[in-house]
Design brief:
The strands form 2 sheets. An 8-stranded parallel β-barrel has the order 1-2-4-5-7-9-10-11, surrounded by 6 helices. It is built from 11 helices and 11 strands. The chain has 410 residues and is an alpha/beta fold. It starts with 7 loop residues before the first helix and ends with a strand. It folds into 2 domains: 53-130, no CATH class; 150-409, TIM Barrel. The chain has helices at 8-31, 53-66, 82-86, 97-117, 175-178, 181-198, 231-243, 259-270, 300-317, 358-370, 394-397, and strands at residues 160-166, 204-215, 226-228, 247-252, 275-279, 298-299, 322-328, 334-335, 346-352, 376-381, 406-409. Strand 4 (247-252), helix 8 and strand 5 (275-279) form a beta-alpha-beta unit.
Amino acid sequence: MSSRRPARPVVLLATIASAVFAACAEGASSAGAANATPDPAPVARAGPPRASPADSIAAAARATVMDSTPVPATAPASTGPAAIATDTGTRVTQDTAAAAAAARARAVANGTQEAERGGLLGPKAGDRHIAFRNAGSNLDSLWPVKGPAPLPGSILPAKRIVAFYGNPLSRRMGILGEFDSEEMLRKLDAEVAAWNALDPAHPVQPALHLIVLVADATPGASGKYRTRHDSAMIEKVYGWARSRNALLFVDLQVGQSTLQHELPWIEKFLVRPDVHLGIDPEFSMKGGGIPGRRIGTYDAADINYASRFLSDLVKKHQLPPKILVVHRFTPRGVTNYKQIALDPNVQIVMHMDGFGPPWMKRDTYWRDIKREPVQFTGWKQFTKAKNDRPPTPRSEILRLWPVPLYIQIQ
């Protein structure tokens, strides 16, 4: 695989980002100012610490080098600067930090190229792809992740969540708004039946995944490059979910806002036992920037903040454990993953959010999900052939390791 190949899903997702902004204008503008919820008064808050690029590159380099050859093979000894990338105990001094970062970046590129040359990644991998179970990946043993035992009322890992994603104000943001509600729910029923037939050991828990805070290419009245949708629309979709005994996920694209600013706004829905949370690093514009012009990021500190927020609600209101879905399709989309803290009151799903042909999505799943284990995993499927070319068969998704327990249909 060329050193630029892993970045291709980023370019592709920029196209989706532009569609999101068009849909935001289509939906939010037509709804009118009367439907927008005013911002609460600003509160003093401390932002999360900035991620260290060296830490992120080092983690990626270690994973790539570890998993770039089949299990029986022995990694060749490294000498010189490249050795820094695989030596987790080496302290890099301030004078050599820049050289070490460059060496780590080369290790990531070289490791990925080596994996493709070995037929383990890329379009020629086929059944040997190292995202699959028992395909020779040294990372298989990292899964399932050792963490808190599921509490009573937990959905994962006993069930698989199948969620329809989007916003009913736009037909272009996902299947949730592409059809009228009755047709959409019939399609959800059919999708649930298909997954239940393939994997009866994990009965499906249906869900609707609603974007309630939509990133925008313009600052808007708040100046935060995002649009809040009103409670009436959220209640309507919640009613659709209840009609199918489905969960509702409320998804936040914060733009230039923050989770600290936005989570209290949506708390009145999150206190319901069947409402859960999604957060989207792609549209988290730290340090400024306009959504869609570059890809955003969350650090472990941000994810931990959201998890603590949910955990506090669980304890305060005696709720069953919450689910936190974190979308991801780039290495920098989530930084310092090893610092993400697991909490028995919150089940974290790292969701592979990229699109493209099946081999490219498997590459992304291996790179951004499998080799950076957190807790549970998810997989995105698009309904449009222009996005998934072609869609990955359900049976192939079940061959991945770890097997995704959250399936999102957009």
